[in-house]
Amino acid sequence: MDKKLKIGITCYPSLGGSGVVATELGKLLAEQGHQVHFIANSIPFRLGTFQKNIFYHEVEVNDYYVFRYPPYDLSLATKMAQVAKSQQLDLLHVHYAVPHAVCAFLAKQMVGDGLKVVTTLHGTDITVLAQDESLKDLIRLAINESDAVTAVSQDLIRETVELLDIQRPIDLTYNFIDKRIYYPRDAASLRRDFAAPDEKILMHISNFRPVKRTQDVVEVFRQVQEQVPAKLLFVGEGPDLPKMQWKINDLGLNDKVHFLGKQDDIAQVISMADVLMLPSEKESFGLVALEAMACGVPTIGSRAGGIPELVLHGKTGYLSAIGDTQSMAENTIRLLTDDRLAAEFREACLQRAHHDFCNDAIRHEYEQIYYRVLGREVPNLKPVCG
């Protein structure tokens, strides 16, 4: 009996941790011989060029005059059902409860119970949307009607259970990095474009939303550069960009800060840095910290959400209370001025990222969940991590 699966994956195709993880997972599954069908309104940005066993199905929204707003959710549910029938999918793996798990629930009603639904919670659907009383019942329905539910951190599981009074089990499946892509790169030439040989580089990568506390990054840097020659690199775009630029100008730091905009080759960019700054007030996992860790870069961050499950305080980075910029600056200076300590952190980062969060192990965990909900025997293939 062929044990390879036919899997439909739906995620937000634009920039964002959930889309990155969903797309990379799909690619890994395809490498194992599973047939993977992405169902979304545009091609996921990390999907790249043609790859065997991967297919893309575009969701087209009909702008009927009777609707004030185009009914994307209904179009997505219909497309899920169509693809499930025509391709004889075994299951749908959807990322985010709203709207994707709700749409999968509708698709399953159209197709029948033979189609299974696995939902992965990434954070925003719980930490933001579930705070809205008008959406709680819908999110609870999506979670309870899924055949399996996973979450990217223990903290997110705790918050989901407490906020929505969820009684069903939720599997912990951490985010991961592909060790073939995320490893220390030779960034010496690129680094020279931004910093002098005696200068250190601090880096922050995000979508610059208020929850990322980008102004804390600037404040930490202000304190650090008073004692250590340094430059600050921002990667990304977002609504807080004007506030950051105003503060940087007000502090007279314009010549020490560079904005790189959105970047695709994150491993190459991160490899320039000496530390990654992640002072978020909410972070369900902190994928960028894992990407940095895999490139040998420690994180200076906050004790928020799932970050403490990823960053080991005093080993792969330092964590402080949310908003405690003085502590963050002191920890940053400690790392930047002690070469032996920095080397120890670098090695600990590489070991933890490539062993505890490697692509083979997490992909295997998802496969086990798939076979479990389908009631099939799991192939005896042990992941190789190192």
UniProtKB/TrEMBL annotation:
SUPFAM superfamilies: UDP-Glycosyltransferase/glycogen phosphorylase. This is N-acetyl-alpha-D-glucosaminyl L-malate synthase BshA. It holds the Pfam family Glycos_transf_1. Residues 16-178 form the Glycosyltransferase subfamily 4-like N-terminal domain. Coiled coil: none annotated. It comes from Paenibacillus xylanexedens. Residues 195-348 form the Glycosyl transferase family domain. Gene3D superfamilies: Glycogen Phosphorylase B.
